[in-house]
Write a structure and sequence with these properties.
Radius of gyration: 22 Å
Structural class: alpha/beta
Helix content: 40-55%
Order of helices and strands: EEHEEHHHHEEHHHHHEHE
Number of strands: 8
Length: 314
């Protein structure tokens, strides 16, 4: 999952091009508003189910090619509303999500998918709970965040694996010399002893699991397989590209890691656009277009394109 932090203005990402609805778009987003595109700037695509014309953001030329090839879908009118509602229902607070205009709360709602409650677990983590048997014997957790601790990866029994956006993961001094390794091994021995306290032993188990996962994952995250290197060659080294490269490294090593089902969370910031919308969105679109195309190219080259679904949330 690729999370666009803030609130992505999807009406500039996909705009209708048929005469009636373009007139509505152009009326609201006229030149004076400073938040619209000219019709000629948009890249035409066709809804295969209805034949209706739409226009993609001008900074998504590579993803347009993927759409035209039938490898990308656009899910319209998706959001955190519980059901269609009228203005009167909204004003009365009937059926609307809590704190609807709060980015933070709606981000948690997207990740949690639990209506009318503040989500403590995410649908990626809960799905990983259900797939434990498929991942029996895995050396790292199946839910991986390359963007810090996120609700999306938290399950009822699944503990997410958080990795950096670039490079490997290890404790300071680990492996640097014999004395450092002695300290590291002593730490693991202490964690494994048990204390009789459920809280302390639970915390020790999580840390022990993290250390074991780190030992396995770090060599993978500090090398770049040829298929990954080729796909990302020449792509701007943005934060999103680095995160997706980390995902590609782990997918490429899924056999060694003992994983058959995995969930990944990556993100890009900059969609809290209260001003200068068109300019700010243009950068985010370009960074996303390049990085997502490189990742898709990797999945094709690695023969896993039909087994990998990349989607956006905001």
């Amino acid at each position: 999952g690729v999370f666009l932090f803030g609130g992505n203005d999807s009406n500039n990402m996909v705009a209708p091009l048929d005469a009636t609805r373009w007139a509505q778009y152009a009326t609201v987003r006229d030149a004076a508003s400073g938040i619209g595109h000219l019709q000629a700037q948009l890249q035409p695509v066709t809804d295969s189910s209805t034949g209706n014309p739409y226009g993609l953001h001008p900074n998504l030329p590579m993803l347009k090619g993927v759409y035209d090839a039938g490898k990308m879908a656009i899910i319209a009118n998706a959001g955190t509303l519980l059901a269609p509602m009228t203005l009167a229902q909204y004003k009365a607070g009937t059926g609307r999500p809590a704190n609807l205009f709060s980015h933070t709360d709606q981000q948690v709602a997207w990740m949690g998918q639990q209506p009318n409650v503040i989500a403590r677990t995410g649908w990626g983590g809960r799905a990983a709970d259900k797939l434990k048997a498929a991942n029996n014997g895995a050396l790292i957790p199946p839910a991986v965040s390359v963007s810090g601790n996120q609700v999306f990866c938290v399950g009822n029994s699944t503990v997410p694996f958080v990795i950096p956006g670039n490079g490997g993961i290890s404790l300071s001094g680990q492996g640097a010399d014999a004395v450092s390794m002695a300290r590291y091994n002593a730490l693991k021995a202490l964690l494994a002893q048990g204390s009789g306290s459920k809280v302390q032993d639970g915390a020790a188990s999580v840390l022990n699991g993290a250390l074991a996962a780190n030992e396995v994952a770090s060599p993978i995250l500090t090398t770049t397989p040829p298929a990954v290197a080729s796909a990302f060659n020449g792509v701007a080294n943005t934060g999103l590209a680095q995160q997706l490269k980390q995902v590609a490294r782990l997918i490429d090593s899924r056999g060694a890691l003992g994983l058959t089902r995995q969930f990944f969370f990556v993100s890009i910031n900059g969609f809290d656009t209260h001003s200068n919308l068109v300019t700010n969105q243009a950068w985010g679109r370009t960074a996303r277009d390049d990085a997502l195309m490189a990742f898709y190219t990797y999945t094709v080259a690695a023969g896993v394109a039909s087994n990998v679904t990349t989607f956006t949330m905001s």
